[in-house]
């Protein structure tokens, strides 16, 4: 099985879908944010505060390359597409973009009190939407498959991914 890399903005459902997809395909899952939290030894928001986003992005790139060495379902962080190096690494991979409406994404980000994103602390709803629109083209460009997740249940999204990637 070729690795499947899930990309998309914060709140797109990458974590949820990666788990469900891995279960269905009986594959290993790597949730990059979870691994990074373990590595940096603190919540991502604290890390951003203490060490800055640039330093976080370096850890993220290192992990992305490592994760791609094994066959797995990879749930990336929403900003993984920002680094040129990551864009290159992902250019020939099976990248699936989980697309959702900007208003839904912002709502999910605000309602998630367990995973408080550093970029959601600093930015208001308008800023978050602008951030999404500024990244949207990159998600589309890197994706081999685009799945519109609007009003779909995880099980439907999983079967659509499997259908599209031909696993
Ligand atoms: C980020 C998204 C987060 C996390 C970090 C930065 C981003 O991951 O990696 O807070 O820049 O979009 P999720 O997309 O899983 O929330």
Automatic annotation (TrEMBL):
Keyword Ribosomal protein tagged: no
Cofactor: Mg(2+)
Cofactor note text: Binds 1 Mg(2+) ion per subunit.
InterPro entries assigned: P-loop_NTPase, Shikimate/glucono_kinase, Shikimate_kinase/TSH1, Shikimate_kinase_CS
Binding sites annotated in the UniProt record for substrate: 33, 57, 78, 135
Compartments where found: Cytoplasm
Annotated metabolic or biological route of this protein: Metabolic intermediate biosynthesis; chorismate biosynthesis; chorismate from D-erythrose 4-phosphate and phosphoenolpyruvate: step 5/7
Binding residues annotated for Mg(2+), in chain numbering: 15
Major place of residence: cytoplasm
Residues noted as binding ATP in the record, renumbered to the chain: 11-16, 117
Domain of life: Bacteria
Its EC number(s): 2.7.1.71
MF-aspect GO terms: ATP binding; magnesium ion binding; shikimate kinase activity
Keyword terms: Amino-acid biosynthesis, Aromatic amino acid biosynthesis, ATP-binding, Cytoplasm, Kinase, Magnesium, Metal-binding, Nucleotide-binding, Transferase
Gene Ontology terms describing biological process: amino acid biosynthetic process; aromatic amino acid family biosynthetic process; chorismate biosynthetic process
Any Gene Ontology CC annotation: cytosol
Reaction(s) catalysed by this chain's protein: shikimate + ATP = 3-phosphoshikimate + ADP + H(+)
Keyword Cytoplasm: yes
Enzyme class: transferase
HAMAP family: Shikimate_kinase
Family to which the UniProt record says this protein belongs: Belongs to the shikimate kinase family.
Complex and partners: Monomer.
Entry function: Catalyzes the specific phosphorylation of the 3-hydroxyl group of shikimic acid using ATP as a cosubstrate.
Name recorded for this polypeptide: Shikimate kinase
């Amino acid at each position: 099985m070729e690795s499947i890399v899930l990309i998309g903005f914060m709140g797109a459902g990458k974590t949820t879908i990666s788990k469900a997809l891995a279960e269905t395909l009986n594959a290993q899952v790597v949730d990059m944010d979870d691994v990074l939290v373990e590595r940096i030894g603190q919540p991502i928001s604290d890390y951003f505060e203490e060490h800055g986003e640039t330093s976080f992005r370096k850890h993220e790139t290192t992990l992305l390359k490592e994760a791609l060495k094994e066959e797995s379902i990879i749930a990336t962080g929403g900003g993984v597409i920002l680094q040129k190096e990551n864009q290159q690494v992902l250019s020939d991979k099976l990248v699936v973009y989980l697309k959702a409406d900007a208003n839904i994404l912002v709502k999910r980000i605000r309602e998630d009190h367990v995973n408080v994103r550093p970029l959601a602390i600093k930015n208001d709803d308008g800023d978050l939407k602008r951030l999404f629109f500024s990244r949207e083209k990159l998600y589309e460009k890197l994706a081999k498959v685009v799945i519109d997740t609007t009003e779909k249940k995880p099980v439907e999204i999983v079967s659509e991914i499997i259908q599209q990637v031909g696993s």
